[in-house]
Design brief:
Elements lengths: L32 H18 L4 E3 L9 E5 L3 E10 L5 E8 L2 E11 L1 E7 L5 E7 H14 L14 E3 L20
Antiparallel strand pairs: 1-2, 2-3, 3-6, 4-5, 5-8, 6-7
This protein binds zinc ion.
The site of zinc ion has 6 residues, from helix 2.
């Protein structure tokens, strides 16, 4: 793929991935637009290469700001997210991450939560999240806190490598393990 930017995604072990990001100021959003566009493009590029990938957090490219770029039915820019009303009910899943594309980690996430955030126009939003979007946003929010899925492993056997040589279609995730993030 020409002009790939995937190398800009920091990999597991990079010290920046373990640092807490800082809040975005309203007057900063315009100056961050290039980075926000890059993040959105990386989600699309990663998905094209690996067959999975719905969101990325700014610290994953070393931008230590509280920004999540998500692409599901369309592009969403989630600025200064706050999680609340985390359910006591938990879900267990095999999590993945653009910082370690061939590794799955079994983690527990809250089944539902409430997300409040600002968008690029500084409009406030409140989303009630459950299931796959709930765990996705918890994963991305963790990045803003400097926490990786590897640190959430349910036990010391909760790791599984994906066999990238077994791929025939470019979709590297085994179908029995639905791709998550
Ligand atoms: Zn991640």
């Amino acid at each position: 793929m020409p002009n790939s930017n995937l190398h800009k995604i920091l990999k597991l072990g990079n010290p920046l991935l373990y640092q807490k990001s800082i809040e975005v100021e309203p007057n900063e959003v315009l100056s961050l637009q290039n980075e926000i566009d890059l993040l959105h493009n990386l989600v699309l590029e990663f998905r094209a290469k690996y067959g999975a990938g719905r969101a990325i957090a700014a610290p994953q490219i070393g931008l230590m700001k509280r920004i999540i770029c998500m692409n599901t039915d369309k592009r969403y820019t989630i600025i200064n997210p706050v999680l609340s009303e985390l359910s006591t009910e938990m879900m267990e899943l095999w999590d993945d991450c653009m910082c370690f594309p061939n590794l799955l980690v079994k983690v527990k996430r809250h089944q539902s939560c409430v997300l409040t955030f600002r968008d690029e126009n500084w409009v406030e939003h409140r989303w009630d999240l459950k299931d796959d979007l709930s765990e996705l946003i918890q994963h991305e929010y963790d990045h803003l806190e400097g926490i990786l899925a590897t640190q959430r492993a349910v036990d010391d056997r909760a790791f599984r490598m994906i066999d990238s040589t077994a791929s025939t279609s470019g979709l590297k995730h085994p179908s029995i393990l639905p791709p998550t993030n």
